[in-house]
Amino acid sequence: MKLQFTKMHGAGNDFIVIDAIHQEIDLTPAQWQRLADRRFGIGADQILVVEKPRLPGCDFRYRIYNNDGGEVEQCGNGARAFVKFVSEKGLSDKTSIRVETMAGIIAPRLEIDGSITVDMGAPVLEPKLVPFDASGLDGIAQGNDTVWPLDLALPGQTSPVLVSVVSMGNPHAVQVVDDVDAQDLDATGPRIEHHPRFPRRVNAGYMQIVDRQHVKLRVFERGAGETLACGTGACAAAVAGILRGLLDSPVRISARGGELSIAWQGPGHPVLMTGPAVTVFEGTIEL
Predict the structure, then answer these.
(1) Which residues are annotated as catalytic?
(2) 104 burial class (0-12, 13-18, 19+ CB within 10 angstroms)?
(3) What is the pTM of this model?
């Protein structure tokens, strides 16, 4: 089977994008994993699949596979790559589209300057819906947020990590740190991702406040490890910081692969994410 693909990235978060409208795609988790492997495949953080919509009023269906072969609900940087892909491939001549995902409908929009804004919907803040098991824990009020203590069972750990829990269609645990570059994500990221209080695992965000409208962010993504940028992680970090009273909208998010802008007016309002999407190369791979 020969599979045509496009390699793209959004602020360094890289993707394989596949047109499943004009190609028949039926791959196993092992095949998705092989495609994303940086030594034996094409290499990517996630694989994005463009399909015909199933819901009325939508232009496309958007499916996402992490590089471990598992399908996930949402990918914000991927949503920007998605709209650029369908525009460049002539699959749509609209500047704004409605896209069906596992987490609901999103609305990416191509801006005049070439950047892309995605309406990511309203964040989910109720712990049990993230989902997060808060039973038996004493949450700590901070601003309009509640931060939760997580014991990571690390050698030498004397106090729990305090996290905000937010879902942007996928679950996030966001902590504030003094120096994001000093964090050992290889040590703590897997402990947070697989913490038993997150039944569907979680993306671990590490946020350093630079000023009230600027943060530095690293994210250890569920099923992918640390990525150079994470769109939903940027949204979750901005939401957590605004709720805690530490940030004001819009927030500039500096990730290791580039910058995103996140705007949010508060609970019940959608999160708007703006940033770049870049096509790197195209090719064909035989499976």
Answers:
(1) 75, 230
(2) middle
(3) 0.88
